[in-house]
Write a structure and sequence with these properties.
Length: 85
Amino acid sequence: MGHKSIEETKKYIGMWVTEDGYIRHELLPNNRYDEARGTRKSVYQGNYNVTGNHINYKDDTGFIADGKFENGILYHAGMILYKKN
């Protein structure tokens, strides 16, 4: 049995948080995301697309960013996010 990408396993769906809990990305099953910062909810919202272990974001204002999943960690724009169970 070979190694499956996170795209194949769909394990990217759910809440991802920085170690201090300040930034939270919720990746929804409909390819939308909602980012919260501190006590502010829905600071950024938009669409995302996962290909292999790579994620592309496009927020509702048109800003684009990307990231990658490695060993259960999401690396995005200098941030390190962990999956919240």
